[in-house]
Description:
The protein is α/β, with parallel strands linked by helices. The chain has one domain: Response regulator (Rossmann fold, 3-Layer(aba) Sandwich), CATH 3.40.50. Helices cover 47% and strands 18% of the residues. The protein has helices at residues 11-23, 37-45, 65-76, 92-101, 113-128; strands at residues 3-7, 27-31, 55-58, 83-87, 105-108. A 5-stranded parallel sheet has the order 2-1-3-4-5, sandwiched between helices. The longest helix has 16 residues, at 113-128.
Amino acid sequence: MTRILLVESESQAGRGVAGTLRDDGFDVLDFRDGRDLFQRVRAALGTCDDATPTAVVADVCSQTPCCRQMLHAVRDSDRPVPVILAAPPADCDGRAAAYRLGADAVVDRPLDPDQVLAALELVLLHQAD
């Protein structure tokens, strides 16, 4: 099963995204804040079982220390996974920073379930190539 680690601080939006992803067959581990995002991702990447995430979707600012640490942990892992970050639609600098730090995709904030699903399908398709 495809496991997604989802971090969304707004509970309503998070439930909507998590529900859409589950309806589409994803196993979703959802968290409400990114304060310990780095530790969660590092722990998940350190497992050698089905708990390893297939992708990370995080509605956290790419400029925060926890986000930068998480992106470095993913990129330094033996099993790197795609990372999708969120940024306000008009925040060109924030989007560019997310890509420079290693995000595989950037979606609009607040998270839209259909946009997240499309981005996930795209990054997972590229990962399979």
